[in-house]
What we know:
Strand content of chain A: under 5%
Distance between the termini of chain C: 70 Å
Strand order of the largest sheet of chain C: 9-1-11-10
Structural class of chain C: alpha+beta
Largest interface: A-C, 47 and 67 residues
CATH architecture of chain C: 2-Layer Sandwich
Mean pLDDT of chain C: 90
Number of helices of chain A: 11
Largest sheet of chain A: none
Number of domains of chain C: 1
Oligomer: heterotrimer
Amino acid sequence: MASFGKGIPDQIKRLSVVVILVLAAFFIGRMLLIPRDFGRYDHFRASALFDVASQEVEFAGQDICTECHDDISSQKANGYHQGLSCETCHGPAAKHTESPDEVTPFKPSGREYCPICHAYLASRPTGFPMIIVESHNPMKACTVCHNPHDPKPPQIPRGCEACHAEIARTKAVSHHVYIPCTRCHQTPEEHKVNPRTYRPDKPKTREFCGACHAEGSTEAPEAIKIDISTHGGRYVCWQCHYPHLPEAR
Amino acid sequence: MHELYAILREITGYIYPNEVELHWGILIVVYPYITGLVAGAFILASLVKVFNVKEVQPTYRLSLLTALAFLIVAPMPLLAHLGHPERAYEIFLTPNRKSAMAMFGFVYAWYLMAVLLLEIWFDYRGDLIRLSQKEHGLKKWLHRIILLFSTDTSEESLKFDKKAVKFITVLGIPSAFLLHGYVGFIFGSVKANPWWSSVLMPIVFLFSAIVSGIALLLLIYMVTTLMRWKPIDMKCLDKLASFLFYMMIIDFSLEALDFLHRIYESEESIKILSQLVSSKLFVSLVVIQLLLGMILPLVALAATKLFPIPDELRRHIYFISALLVEVGIFTTRWNVVIGGQLFSKSFRGLTAYKMTLLGIEGLLMAIVLLLLPFLILYLLTLIFPPWPEAYETPAEAEATT
Amino acid sequence: MSKKAKRKQKKSRRDALKTLVKSSLLLFVPLDVPNDPKLAEELKENLGGYDPTKHLWGMGIQIERCIGCGRCAWACKTENKVPKEPFFFRTWVERYIVHRDGEITVDSPEGGIHGFQPITTERHILRSFFVPKLCNHCENPPCVQVCPVGATFRTPDGVILVDEEYCIGCRYCIQACPYGARYLHPEKRVADKCTFCYHRIVKGLAPACVEVCPTQARIFGDLKGRASPLVRFMRMNKINVLKPYLNTEPKVYYANLDMAVK
């Protein structure tokens, strides 16, 4: 043993003992402390995956509602709200599915809830049914006129602004305020009940706008006149101008 | 939670809702500052052993002890800021090989044990053996344990110590670069953050570290020499100041390069970053880091090189310049760490950092962590006396005075 | 000592040795997600019959359908017990307003949970729209890359999760996420984020945000599936992801993504 260490400086021998102790402590510590299931599937604790997966569910999901409320489901299935999940309006209902009698889901009433989606916001997509809450039957709860499971306008809307509030409000401050929507948009009657299937059209020719805006036109003398044979080349007018709020004032 | 509501009022533009809470606070400013000082102090020590700069020999042992004192404190701000400090050991158990941060434990342990402790052990061994022979009681035992009961003071073994020190220092330079360049890499590799994401980040960190380390040793050397009522070795001080000056020029050039590069490339983030620099970071970046912490000391140090300035005044210039540099480098860390979190990753808005005074991540904690190394350094000088007078016999001491 | 006890002791010693070797290897050798059928079977058993190796989850978002009602953000907080304060979101909705002069303003008041106020500016607006945001469950996730201890990980079916019992709360992942999708849970003191409602997926349910979205602006589905709403969405639209230049390869796909969105 003594001859084994010969030639190795005394310092190294002493330090080696410390190094070996440190390394041993390190590896034994690791052995004891690494979670057993770590690295089973990848660089993580396998049970973490199962922990996350075992979290409690709050929203029961559309399908289970149908099992008991098939009448409402079938009513909803053919209306505009067919894509809505019950819990969008009624809130998380997993507890209700477990003990239906003790736990009753939320039931929106009054005028607070529906405007979350249907109040007018300019950023909402065109054609999405929106109302100005303050002026739309301000004293009535939504459900007095609309059945939320099969929402329809109580009567077929008379004017376009019922749905196209954004455009109506824009047009109201433009020079085109007196022009009715249907003068430019040929609108099939079915559009009012089935808006996405039957769509209104748009003016197809330059001459359409030219009726007022072409040089020599006598209609609407205050309208700006241009030479429609040269102005704008091969484009139809609305491809550059926004007729609901024409930029020339 | 109410401090988050207060921040809501200071947001300009748009930030992602999860960005209201700023995650790396003052403690993460302290951390790279401290590791920078460690690396810088060690590089200075290596000048003596590897590059044979004889003038700075008086600071050699002081540098090693300073590096050790700061290295002991370095992980503390990290631990204190963790959400679960009690789980920190996991970094040794299951380090994620793909993570820059995972290597922290190993880089740290390597630097502490394989470099600093070893170098100090070999460098002090002979002296400590002599010292322990004259001592009694607790101190004797402490030294004997530290020596691992080594008693060999033969010519041969002392020669081996010298060789070992040199070898470890050579190994130590890349290790010091690794330690601090690595901290720079932790920031520089975050591609989501354009203020951090830069290949120059580790190098800038490194040179600012060297600058801060040299300045610190200059301060410590001056203060400890005065406290011992010994004359300051002006040759040593001049050399330190020279190194400080040259390193600052390199550091300044690198930072200027980084700055120019960003402006010239003018990427998507340039708008929000220039907003950041001209508003929230103006004082800490332009005024403190650049003017007070870099340009002013550079000019002052240049003046000492260009003009014959009397020793007394030169000492004052050095001292104040080094102090300014320390403040400057601290704000450099601040501007990186806090600055990088003051703008939204949506590049559309700026947020604010509200530092708390108390609490585990507060200002007081940061101050304590910045002062603690000096206390540790004091204790270390008791165990490992860095000055020659500690090893002189009374007769020798008489002869020198 | 009885023979049995001896054998038992030997076995436990062998197990300990195995763990030692394995744990040492863990430091240096990559452990790949095994294609081992035995492990897949075991996963299935632990997940109540759901086999994660057979799926790859993603989400499609039809921006032009989003009405900014914020039901998704509300449902997410409810389903996942996300802290109520407006600083912690697994999903949120942003509103973009592009002005005529090119300036773009964005807002997301309380993550959109309580909807949005009407635009009151006098300035000319070119376009405006809503964009739902959530964790992108990147194929190349920077958050998983930077986690020092392996507390955030990718499941075999492509979902990025956090191990709340292992996370040390260093918040490097929060810094590394380019999308602001992570936050520090104020009570648990660990990183937290969208799980794609993993607990719902394993039961065959859609994520809560998808479940309640009234306009089907969010389409959740299996990218490995043959015919599904998500596959149709991918077929019919020009698709973009957020910050594609960062090469994170998100699995949340946007149709009609505006260049203003970041």
